[in-house]
Design a protein that fits this description.
Helix 1 packs antiparallel against helix 6, helix 3 crosses helix 5 and helix 4 crosses helix 5. This protein has one domain. The chain starts with a helix and ends with a helix. It contains six helices and two strands. It is elongated, with a radius of gyration of 18 Å. A two-stranded antiparallel sheet has the order 1-2. It is mainly α and about 140 residues long. Strand 1 and strand 2 form a beta hairpin.
Length: about 140
C-alpha cells in the first residue's frame, strides 16, 4: 500500500468523528493493511470494540461537561436513562457523567451505523485503487 493511499485512509478515518472521539485514534497507518476491505464497516466496528473504544466508562468526565452534553443532547434524560437501564444500571448507580458517557457512546455508534454505506463505498474504492497500484507494479 502506497503512502498516498495510507494518507487517503487517514484523512477519511479522521472524518469519522463525534465531539472529541475519532475513528482514526484507534488505527495507525500500519493497521490499514489489516482492514478487511470486503467488510470494512464491520471490521472497523469490531476493531474499535475490541480496543474498548465504545466503552462508556469515562467518555464524558466532570459534572459540568456531562451536564452540558446532556442538556444539549438529551435534556429530558429519557434516552440516556433508557440506555443505562438497558445496560443493567440501577437508578441509584448513575450520575450525570455515566449518563452522558453512555449517551455519547450510543450517539457515536449510531453515527457510524448511519455512515456504514459510505464507509463500505470508500473502502471499496481504496481496494480498487490498491488493485490498480498492484497491477502497475507488475
Amino acid at each position: 500500500m502506497t503512502e498516498s493511499t495510507k494518507n487517503k485512509i487517514k484523512h477519511y478515518l479522521d472524518s469519522l468523528e463525534f465531539d472529541d472521539w475519532c475513528v482514526s485514534d484507534y488505527f495507525s497507518p500500519d493497521d490499514y493493511e489489516d482492514i478487511n476491505f470486503d467488510d470494512a464497516y464491520r471490521y472497523i466496528i469490531d476493531y474499535i470494540e475490541d480496543c474498548g473504544g465504545f466503552d462508556p466508562t469515562g467518555a464524558v468526565v466532570y459534572y459540568s461537561k456531562a451536564m452540558e452534553f446532556l442538556q444539549r443532547n438529551d435534556p429530558t434524560l429519557t434516552l440516556s436513562l433508557r440506555l443505562a437501564e438497558d445496560m443493567g444500571y440501577n437508578m441509584l448507580d448513575v450520575d450525570s457523567e455515566i449518563l452522558a458517557s453512555i449517551l455519547k457512546m450510543n450517539m457515536i455508534q449510531n453515527m457510524l451505523y448511519d455512515r456504514a454505506d459510505d464507509i463500505t463505498a470508500f473502502f471499496y474504492e481504496i481496494q480498487e485503487l490498491i488493485h490498480t497500484e498492484d497491477e502497475e507494479e507488475e
